[in-house]
Amino acid sequence: MSIDLRKKAEEKLIDLSKKATITLSKKGLNGVTARVGLALDISASMTNLYKRGTVQAVTEQTLALGMNFDDNQAADVFLFGVKDYTVGEIQKENFYEFVNREIYSKYELEGGTRYSGVIRRIVEYYFPGAFTTKKSGFLGLKSERIVDTSKYQHQEPVYIIFITDGNCQDYAETKDIITLASRLGVFFQFVGVGDEQFTFLKELDDMEGRFIDNANFFQVRDMGTLSDGELYDSLLAEFPAWLKEARSKSIIK
Predict the structure, then answer these.
(1) Helices (H), ranges, the chain
(2) Per its UniProt record, what SMART domains does this chain match (predicted)?
(3) DSSP letter at 72?
(4) Within 13 Å, how many C-alpha atoms sit on residue 143's CB side?
């Protein structure tokens, strides 16, 4: 490992944190505490983004937000392809070459993209036991998934950055899980990377029937053309409004 390269990476991370602070100030988010998570697409079409270092850059940009938001200055990392996984925390002590070491060398890229599994995994990670099943109908033969919010109305909000380069294969399940999660204190910021149309994510952004609008979407065709400040402005475009509404509806403290 080159000590000089690591030192430069550490200096860059400090600079990213300062840029994140500027955006947080502009958005009126100074002093806000939130648990930060990052969901990364590991479908095979993401290969070049991993090899070029784009995904590593995104993890560092997310960590810089976590350094300002999160109580332990870290971010939780989740993966999704056909299946879904919990990787662990990215933090100042382990961020250098995190993606190559903890993701690309340990997980095979998969031949499909499903969102619902990782969204359910994320919700259950931060709100264990919130999803329950209610029996109904004759002899209780029907079952309905519901959300138990009683334990989770006064905790810190959760902010998730969700990176993907393509639409998913499980539209209905994803709509259902996002709708259920709208009663909990979690906000999903979806980011589409590349030239895909992202029809479903645009639809999800404006989907009706939710208790609160808990998701936003924007597209970046080439992450390398976006400055750090521009990225943070986009990532935090709707989060302040969600915080205000979530507090007014007693979803978060």
Answers:
(1) 3-26, 47-51, 54-69, 98, 116-126, 171-181, 199-205, 228-235, 239-248
(2) VWA
(3) T
(4) 4
Structural contact between residues 76 and 34, judged by C-beta atoms closer than 8 angstroms: no
β pairing state of 158-164 and 84-90: unpaired
Distance between CA atoms of residues 162 and 85, nearest Å: 14
DSSP state of 44: G
pLDDT string in tens for the chain (253-residue length): 577 889 999 999 999 999 999 999 999 998 899 999 999 999 999 999 999 999 999 999 999 999 998 878 999 999 999 999 999 999 999 999 999 999 999 999 999 999 999 999 999 999 999 998 876 656 556 668 889 888 887 889 999 999 999 999 999 999 999 999 999 999 999 999 999 999 999 999 999 999 999 999 999 998 888 899 999 999 999 999 999 999 999 999 8
Task: Specify the CATH class of 34-248 in words.
Answer: alpha beta
pTM above 0.85, yes or no: yes
Between CA 182 and CA 45 the distance in angstroms is 30
Q: How many CB atoms lie within 10 A of CB 57?
A: 18
Amino acid at 112: G
Q: How far apart (Å, rounded) are the C-alpha atoms in residues 186 and 171?
A: 20
Residues present in the chain in total: 253
Residue type, 210: R
**Phi and psi torsions of 245, nearest 5°:** -70, -40
Distance from the Cα of residue 42 to its chain's centroid: 14
For tokens 């290969």, what's the residue?
A: 47
Provide the token pair at 50.
């991993």
